[in-house]
């Protein structure tokens, strides 16, 4: 018998992937046995981990034959990884083999509190266009059924969103002041910059709104100021990695906008916006803070003033992943409606009151037909 993944095994997400660690999540494994099989059980695997690696190039000195210093180019790769959790258990077992039919096996699980949000990104390092880096914070659930004549398995990602509920601040104001000095010593007035973000937590792709006040009490005109979204990624190798290349920091300008400045002696007050997405339409990865991978963001307001150090405000923000609309657009395979719920035993068993509640309403095999 040939096992067909597309027709016989499926994992259905019932509760949305959300930032609320510690709360129960619900899913259902659907199975369609078309012909007799020797398989007796379905195994379930849950795994969460982070993994990163990057290449580096450095110059190493050595003493040449004539006593002079010679330099060699050395290339290498650094890796770092950590497993947050990894568990495997039997979801259901049939002593005489799984009979022909359509089945739905609901299960529940929880995730530990202190795990970083999902993340996936790769690119070039700052040091060389030929050196690459890659980082992943990944979570997944896999169901598998093994018989003498083959193995059937399906894997579904778990999207863990950064939990920023306790970190929202909608009233923080940032200020910076600079003094204009002719020939580095003769004062020519001051420039004050004040900015207030409408929030410090944003969803990737949304729009940040900033209220800006400029007081140009100096003798020079300010042509413009720039608003930027900056991304900072820190990668760290294994703890037993002793060489100096075990850490790398990568800073990138994700997007920016330019606005008119302020004339000498004037004041300016305005509301400006920054759309938090790249110009080429690539997905912006969310904030995450793992042991080997950290991705943070800040919104910068930069003002270049003649005869004065640049006046800059760096406002840290948290960027969360956008809502996953895939499930809203998804249509259930026709065979799912024929599946009958089969209660499981053990810690992953879903209590009957939950299966009878709105949580499982409109779920194939449980509530009204989709």
UniProtKB/TrEMBL annotation:
This is Arrestin domain-containing A-like. It comes from Paramuricea clavata. Gene3D superfamilies: 2.60.40.640. The lineage of its organism: Eukaryota, Metazoa, Cnidaria, Anthozoa, Octocorallia. SUPFAM superfamilies: E set domains. GO terms for cellular component: cytoplasm. Transmembrane segments: none annotated. SMART domains: Arrestin_C (SM01017). Belongs to the arrestin family. GO terms for biological process: protein transport.
């Amino acid at each position: 018998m040939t096992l067909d993944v597309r027709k016989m095994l499926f994992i259905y997400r019932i509760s949305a992937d959300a930032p609320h660690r510690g709360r129960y999540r619900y899913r259902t494994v659907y199975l369609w046995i078309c012909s007799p099989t020797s398989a007796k059980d379905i195994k379930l695997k849950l795994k969460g981990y982070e993994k990163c690696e990057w290449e580096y190039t450095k110059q190493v000195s050595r003493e040449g034959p004539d006593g002079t210093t010679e330099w060699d180019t050395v290339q290498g790769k650094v890796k770092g990884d950590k497993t947050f959790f990894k568990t495997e258990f039997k979801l259901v077992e049939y002593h005489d083999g799984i009979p022909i039919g359509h089945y739905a096996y609901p299960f529940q699980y929880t995730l530990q509190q202190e795990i970083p949000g999902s993340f996936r990104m790769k690119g070039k390092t700052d040091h060389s266009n030929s050196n690459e880096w890659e980082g992943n914070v990944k979570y997944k659930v896999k169901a598998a059924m093994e018989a003498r004549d083959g193995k059937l398995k399906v894997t579904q990602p778990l999207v863990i969103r950064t939990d920023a509920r306790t970190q929202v601040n909608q009233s923080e104001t940032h200020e910076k002041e600079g003094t204009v000095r002719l020939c580095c010593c003769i004062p020519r007035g001051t420039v004050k910059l004040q900015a207030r973000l409408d929030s410090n937590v944003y969803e990737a792709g949304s729009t940040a709104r900033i209220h800006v006040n400029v007081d140009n009490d100096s003798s020079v005109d300010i042509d413009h100021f720039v608003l930027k979204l900056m991304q900072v990624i820190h990668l760290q190798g294994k703890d037993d990695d002793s060489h100096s290349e075990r850490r790398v920091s990568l800073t990138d300008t994700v997007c920016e906008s330019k606005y008119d400045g302020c004339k000498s002696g004037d004041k300016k007050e305005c509301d400006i916006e920054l759309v938090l997405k790249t110009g080429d339409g690539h997905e912006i990865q969310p904030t995450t803070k793992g042991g080997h991978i950290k991705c943070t963001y800040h919104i910068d307001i930069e003002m270049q003033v003649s005869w004065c150090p640049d006046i800059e405000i760096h406002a840290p923000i948290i960027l969360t992943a956008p809502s996953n609309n895939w499930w809203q657009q998804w249509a259930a395979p026709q065979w799912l409606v024929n599946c009958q719920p089969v209660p499981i035993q053990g810690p992953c068993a879903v209590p009957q009151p939950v299966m009878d509640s709105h949580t499982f309403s409109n779920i194939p095999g449980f509530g009204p037909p989709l």
